[in-house]
Design goal:
With 483 residues, this protein is α/β, with parallel strands linked by helices. An eight-stranded mixed β-sheet has the order 4-11-10-9-8-5-6-7, sandwiched between helices. Strands 12-13-15 form a three-stranded antiparallel β-sheet, with no helix packed on it. The radius of gyration is 25 Å and the shape is globular.
Length: 483
Amino acid sequence: MLTTDWKPNKSSSVPLHQQITDFMKQKIANGEWTVGYRLPPQRTFAKALGVNRSTVVTAYDELIAEGLIEGKSGSGTRVVNNTWNLLATAPPPDWNSYVKVGTHKPNLPTIQEINQAEFTPNIIRLGTGELSPSLIPGNSMKQIFQQLSNKEITYGYEEPKGLLPLRKQISNYLRTIGISASPSSILIVSGALQALQLISVGLLHRGSAVLTEKPSYLHSLNVFQSAGMRLVGIPLDKEGIQAKLIPAYKKQQNAALLYTIPSFQNPTGTLMTEERRQQLLDFCQQEQLPLIEDDVYRELWLDETPPTPMKASDKQGLVLYLGSLSKTLSPGLRIGWMVGPEPVVDHLADIKMQTDYGSSSLSQWAAAEWFSSGLYAQHLVEVREQLKMRRDFTFDTLNKYFSELAVWEKPSGGFYIWLHLLPSLSMRKLFEKALAEGILLNPGNVYDHQAEQYLRISYSFASLPSIDDGLKRLSQIVKAIAK
């Protein structure tokens, strides 16, 4: 899917096709669309610009006639000249070749489409893994910044591990969930994803394997693959990752590390039992296999408090523990934390300084204020109430429209319901058809290429009327495709 911040002016006296031609010429002349750049398909471009396909065809034909673009069967339409080419003493760089050989792999095509479609007006986002704008405490956020305006705070760079007052507050918070961690063993990061990026480039050897659940959110990213590692999935059951398989997987796969989301796993919503957590920690200690415990959903329990984090029982410094405010409070703050042995934290803090010179100091002060004021604990109570209501509503809605089309489990927290579709159908066809109908899905195969008949359904983002409307229409699409 193509997105553009420009659209032709339909009230202008200049014909639409001429406006589009001039726009494309400007892109080419400015070097934004370089020689070799592949233009979007005509139908896709027309949809993005809100015009008929014939209008775009006319614009393409004019540029072809002027020798600026060229269309070839099977390879699409590409820029072949930039009007300055003929006068240049040397050809311009082929930026496409640079893009292809870059070390960081692009997102999966479906993930790219999802990331772009999320900003389409009025689209129903049935899989989005974040809080609804109505659940983000805007008034309290204003109160926090008002309180900060009356305090002496710094606006420059913070020390490598992050703002000390924030690390002290997080240390206090971690104590309430059983984790003893001094501020010196805490690294402030711009969301838990940055912690994974730092770990991938700072701690692991190229060619080694990272073990994780199957399916897992981690499979929808290229964080470790771009650093030269492989992801290897270990099957899940209702109690969590099957820990007993770890020794064999470690030996066979040359595994360097294990990544898990024990509390309300993404995408399945599975809550790892206390017994399985201990078993997992025991196997990792026995195998000397470092463990990343990604606990960003922990505080979003809806029925009862989840088991104690594995980090609380870690006496060997084996566990790197990740937390974040992105899922519970606001993704816009971009504040998370990693807890680990001080040498590891020191090393990753040094790498972080080389990449961004520290997370936003203003966001760090705001996060510290959320903790110290007591507003964060109060907000968690309120957001759990809202999410529980949303979960129950979505569960009832699925019963209404999908009782004969799918099976699923009722999660006890987090954001997600892992929907197993019963009719055998093309997930790609379902994704495209739903998108054309204004419904954005998160197909299961982006989390596990074998999960072809699954959808990650989120009850955290879309409004309740949108959830009802989206699931109703989605059930009709499933029936139509399955015929």
